[in-house]
Amino acid sequence: MSRVVITEFMDEPAVARLRAAHDVLYDPKLVDDAVRLHAEAASADVLIVRNRTQVRGELLASMKRCRVVGRLGVGLDNIDVPGCEARGMRVIPAAGANALSVAEYVIGTAMLLLRGAYQSTADVAAGRWPRPALSNGREVGGRTLGLIGFGSIGQLTARLAQGLGMRVMAYDAMLDADHPAYAASGVSPAGLDALIAQADVISLHVPLVDSTRGLFGAGRIAAMKRGAVLVNTARGGIVDELAVAEALRSGHLGGAALDVFDAEPLAAAPHFTGCPNLVLTPHIAGVTAESNERVSSLIADKVLEALNG
Ligand code: NAD
């Protein structure tokens, strides 16, 4: 019987399956108590985390028994993967399991932002009825979606967008233009500058790594079409929040949805106060009832497999 320590929320039926075979500590608040977290991680054969537990430095050094780190989601920027591997640990992400949730968030926010819907909430509530100002909303059909990153989420987002009649182009630094994923999906591969210049909606789907940190700053936002919409569900460090706020205020950006931030949870952020047509969500694009079940079930399967193997 192995000791499995789960530091953030996981779907209960998946926890129960692990519990049936192993000694499980499930405490979704463990991530908030550094002293207990270190003590429990030291006794763990398996550590299961989401995105808040920082598996690096002192915590990693304390994980003397650990063989497997399960990540309830994708994006490994909170885990020192080389450090884990050097200590003989396997790092297992829930690849693809929350892709549909993120893709639906991208399409849903893009559609509402193109209509200016988030601009009018306060006005309508206050009885101002801004119908003339919002009567030039735009349809997504016939518009161009530019995807930066064409992995699991990028590819699923492309399919949903095509179903709505959008033309889709994608830039992915790791895929050659003749990669079969493009031909198979009918998505046009593009250079980053060409994509930025042509897209009506830009959505980011790359991991946060050295080469993507700061990828989308003031210069690239300025190069977007006037009135275009930006959606960031990838990671905060990839998009410059201040530049987004300024471009919304100046009217250059037509709208933006930000689900991820430089620092999470986002503290008071006066730069966003009063920004028009802005959706801010607390890192929930990939978290729905369905994806939580899929992600948790996949990680439980893989952990059980790793412990049996
Ligand atoms: P994925 O690994 O399937 O795809 C990532 C793609 O990015 C790959 O095709 C890769 O080739 C490409 N890429 C890597 N470096 C690049 C670069 N420098 N420039 C352009 N492309 C590059 O991952 P995914 O499942 O599609 O997820 C993408 C990211 O979305 C994750 O890393 C994570 O940070 C984020 N995410 C956020 C949420 C949320 O709730 N907000 C949920 C899931 C994932």
From TrEMBL:
Domain named D-isomer specific 2-hydroxyacid dehydrogenase NAD-binding is located at 108-285
Which GO molecular function terms does the record list? (S)-2-hydroxyglutarate dehydrogenase activity; NAD binding; phosphoglycerate dehydrogenase activity
Top-level taxon: Bacteria
Task: Tell me which Gene Ontology terms the entry assigns under biological process.
Answer: L-serine biosynthetic process
For the keyword Phosphoprotein, the answer is no
All copies of the D-isomer specific 2-hydroxyacid dehydrogenase catalytic domain together span: 4-309
UniProt cross-references to PROSITE patterns, sorted A to Z: D_2_HYDROXYACID_DH_2, D_2_HYDROXYACID_DH_3
> Per UniProt, which keywords does this protein have?
NAD, Oxidoreductase
Q: Which SUPFAM superfamilies match?
A: Formate/glycerate dehydrogenase catalytic domain-like, NAD(P)-binding Rossmann-fold domains
Q: What are the coiled-coil residue ranges?
A: none
Please name the PANTHER family in this protein's record: FORMATE DEHYDROGENASE 1, HYDROXYPYRUVATE REDUCTASE
Family in the record:
Belongs to the D-isomer specific 2-hydroxyacid dehydrogenase family.
Report the protein name in the record: Hydroxyacid dehydrogenase
